[in-house]
Design brief:
The protein is of the alpha+beta class. Helices cover 22% and strands 34% of the residues. It is built from twelve helices and 27 strands.
Length: 576
């Protein structure tokens, strides 16, 4: 009897060990696109390997955009069959995929998130969850999961989170959460951080496993890895805390991992420590002030030729909508959309500046019936591509070899020209003009407030781009990869010349010129414009300033951010 018991324990231990991680972090990977790669019998032995949960740009595929495939093999032990069939099969979680995916299981489509070209619609900030029906599983045999991915730019692939398999009906009965105080996950003046973890076990069994806290710096360095064995009784929530010591000022990506038989869970989160102590001193060239003084002088010499064209079909009962045309630096034609309250008198105005490669639309510029809204399409964007159109990718490197004609010298001046237009209008209350935008628009907001610091009265950037380039290319896969390829194709230019040109448009160098109060919005899990580069500019401000951090947001912020921004603008402009 004792022998039988020992054998049974060995079998059970073997089953537990092998079921603990049904889905391994290493997958097969191939760039390109071929429908044959979805099939279970396709031979992927010669494919290179890649880690799921980290962007492919960080794993040897810098600057690659387009299609790629991931494949992995998983064996479901038949010991799980009864429980799986009882609970509707398994649930496949893949984290966030940048940008679009279609996922297959044993050649059959499981699901899709986003739309592939030509009707492209990215869903880079959506967690993927796909059910695997129990009757589709080949028990005790290899099963193939294949993921077709399209990346339109920036980070690519299975980029965020841990890929995992759990039994579907049990997936939501075992929960992990981290409840940090303060709720924005920003800590000030600490030597040790306590990370409280709560586990809820609503299953019908006691569960034992290994809990691991992992913390990486914003540069991807491993800072902490702490393991703890833990048992959670059924229907009995359990709370405990990890002690994280020695965290210096900066931002950290962290995760709680729980590994056990059937119940593999991950909970990613981010924290900031003393963000206003993140040091990234200005590195403006000696002729920085002269460079921008000349640019503004050149702009002033260009006749703006303002044209205001009313679009009757887009007017509403309360606001009129106009297409604006004007000439900017280099006599470049740029356009924008201008929305004006029908109510007579002067009104406060908001200049809305756009994200990289996006198209400013009339629907984007409606701050309310008491605001004038001007949505600008800078050169090379939207309906401002007549004279300058380098395309995407390529925009960031357009004339990078010559600071005098580099694309953002003109783009920043387009924003100043938009301020010229607003200040030329009798219906604009020029004592109340704000500028706002996100990502590239966040950088354009900084730049406009700096280069036109007498007329801009408020500045509200979100997740600002174009900052602290030497560090930026270390912490974000994109756009660093595009610049790597540029330098490779232009060896005569070299990195120092690239950094020299970029230093003229770096918003951390422009920040000290801003005179208007500024309110910045950041996402702590942003891997496109990480908070490190946001604060590199923010910490060089010498004005009234504040920020709001969204701990679980990436590059896309929740709707609450817009409302908070507008409430701040209204309060500062003394509006009801």
């Amino acid at each position: 009897m004792r022998t039988f018991y020992l054998i049974l324990c060995l079998i059970l231990s073997f089953t537990l060990l092998n079921a603990q991680n049904l889905l391994k972090p290493v997958w097969k990977f191939q760039t390109g696109d071929n429908p044959e790669w979805a099939k279970i019998d396709f031979n992927d032995n010669n494919w290179p390997e890649i880690i799921a949960g980290t962007a492919w740009e960080q794993q040897g595929y810098a600057a690659y955009d387009g299609y790629a495939w991931y494949r992995t093999t998983v064996i479901f032990p038949s010991s799980l069959k009864t429980k799986a069939l009882k609970n509707e099969g398994f649930l496949l979680r893949l984290g966030q995929i940048d940008d679009v995916d279609c996922t297959f299981f044993n050649s059959d489509k499981l699901g899709q998130t986003g739309d592939f070209p030509p009707n492209y619609k990215g869903k880079y900030n959506v967690d993927r969850e796909y059910p695997i029906p129990g009757d589709k599983i080949r028990w005790d045999q290899p099963n193939v999961i294949a993921v077709r991915v399209f990346d339109n730019g920036g980070s690519g692939g299975l980029a965020t989170g841990v890929a995992e398999l759990t039994i579907k009906g049990l997936a939501d009965k075992f929960k992990i959460s981290v409840a940090l105080t303060p709720p924005d996950h920003i800590f000030q003046g600490i030597s040790m951080l306590k990370i409280p973890v709560k586990i809820e076990n609503d299953t019908d069994e006691n569960i034992s496993g290994k809990m691991t806290l992992k913390i990486k710096s914003d540069f991807g360095e491993d800072i902490l890895s702490i393991e703890q064995n833990i048992k959670i009784n059924k229907n009995a929530p359990k709370s405990f805390a990890f002690d994280a010591k020695g965290l210096k000022p900066g931002f950290y990506q962290a995760s709680i991992l729980f590994e056990s038989f059937l119940y593999n869970k991950s909970f990613p989160f981010a924290i900031g420590v003393d963000p206003e102590k993140v040091i990234s001193p200005p590195d403006a060239p000696a002729d920085f002030e002269n460079y921008w003084a000349r640019a503004k002088k050149e702009l002033a010499a260009v006749d703006p030729q303002f044209k205001t064209i009313k679009i009757d079909s887009l007017c509403s009962a309360t606001k009129d909508l106009f297409l604006i045309e004007m000439r900017s630096l280099g006599n470049v034609l740029v356009r924008g959309w201008y929305s004006v309250p029908k109510k007579p008198g002067q009104h406060p105005a908001i200049l809305h500046v756009q994200g990289y490669s996006s198209v400013m639309q009339p629907a984007w510029i409606n701050s309310g019936d008491d605001f004038i809204d001007f949505g600008l399409n800078i050169r090379g964007h939207g309906n401002s591509q007549d004279n300058v159109n380098p395309g995407f990718p390529g925009y960031l490197q357009h004339h990078l070899d010559d600071k005098e004609v580099y694309i953002y010298r003109g783009a920043y001046m387009d924003c100043v020209r938009a301020m010229d237009f607003l200040c030329s209008r009798p219906e604009v209350d020029t004592s109340r003009i704000a500028v706002e935008g996100g990502s590239q628009g966040g950088a354009l907001s900084f730049a406009t407030a700096a280069l036109d610091n007498k007329r801009v009265k408020l500045c509200a950037p979100a997740v600002p781009f174009l900052s602290d380039f030497r560090d930026y290319f270390k912490v974000a896969a994109w756009p660093g990869g595009e610049f790597v390829n540029y330098v490779k194709d232009h060896p005569e230019i070299g990195w120092e010349k690239v950094y020299h040109t970029l230093s003229y448009i770096d918003i951390k160098n422009l920040a000290p010129w801003i005179k208007a109060p500024l309110f910045m919005f950041v996402g702590l899990r942003d891997n496109v414009c990480p908070p490190h580069i946001n604060f590199a500019a923010y910490n060089n401000l010498n004005v009234e300033r504040q920020y709001k951090a969204y701990p679980y947001s990436g590059h896309g912020l929740p709707g609450d951010a817009y409302q908070v921004k507008m409430d701040w603008i209204r309060k500062k402009f003394r509006m009801n």
